[in-house]
Amino acid sequence: MPSNVIMPQMGESIFEGTITKWLKNVGDRVERDEPLFEISTDKVDSEIPASASGILKEILFPEGETVEINTVVAVIDDQTGSVPDSEESGDTVSPRESEQAPGRDPKPEAVDPRRGLRASPLVRRMAQEEGIDLREIEGTGLGGRITKRDILNYLSEREQIAEVTRPLVQQAQEGLGPAPSDQDEIVPMTAMRRSIAEHMISSRRTSAHVTSIFEVDMTAVLRLKEAKGDEFARREGFKLSLTPFFVKGVADSLKDFPILNASMVGNDIVYKKDINLGVAVALDWGLIVPVIRQAQQKTLAGLARELADLSHRARQKQLSPDEVQGGTFTLTNPGVFGGLIGTPIINQPQVAILCVGAVTKRAVVINDAIGIRSMAYLSLTFDHRLIDGAVADRFLSGLKARLEGWSDKIF
Question: Of 28, 33, 85, 388, which one is the catalytic site residue?
């Protein structure tokens, strides 16, 4: 019996998803709960598992298409045995389409001598009508056969690129920028990239961004990390990084300055009961901010465990939308890439975000003597509509004191 694969709802406020990649081809064997395709929403990228075991009989939507939730996107045939060639290849061609008449043998598949390309007469006719060079298409059918669906997918991708090119050409014609050349590669933004862009522009328009920068001595933290790191790794099963120290320091400091853990609704200030810390995680395809909930109640070890788990699952596309929503304060750490200072954009509807720079050894003056210390810059961007500079600096001063005077309590 065929089993329908539907576009799942990934959160209460999410009503569609963009299919970014099919992990199986038509005709492939799939097992229940095996990753079948990847989707991107405005909240998170995820792998969607197969709902049944069997042969992937049909793919109804190509990569790059946005589909509403609860829509059938594929069909899995759970019967054993082979699937007919036309079904495996994605070609559901009527007798008229295939130019066959009743009682006649089907026309043989044509082989392109230039590269051994296999394509039916229908596919060759479609390619000729659309001006497509079949050598540009990778066949997904049996033996590399180019199918009707391959042609349709190619046309869809070409139209997407044309949609991006048209406004660029128009801008060039109006004297607002250069026209793209033949050597330029034009790629449509992913759903995640579009969401980030819209969110950042909206934040700049909403909040009065101001940044304050403090320098902090991380020597005490590094000594503690070195002394307890091996014990921590044996106990927890992963290495202790510096990020949990910053997360713990921020969570404790926010308890003293609840206005930085608030939001604005019109002319009202909403003070959040829980400190839900978003920690930015850089991905190869964008940026995501999973949230550590009720961070004020957790120990350093507990925060380290949750941070490691969220970061790992973010890179594996295994986060749920609920795990990237509801943050009350955000921490971003470009220091892991060597960045010293940053002025990040506030993650709405929050009112502040902390940027942690790289920890580097520098010569500093201590008690009128020059010493070598491990130093880092902390940059706090805050919404000046709500937070005064004095409050922001007092918050940073308290965080600095916590980091520089860290106790030996880790577990």
Answer: 388
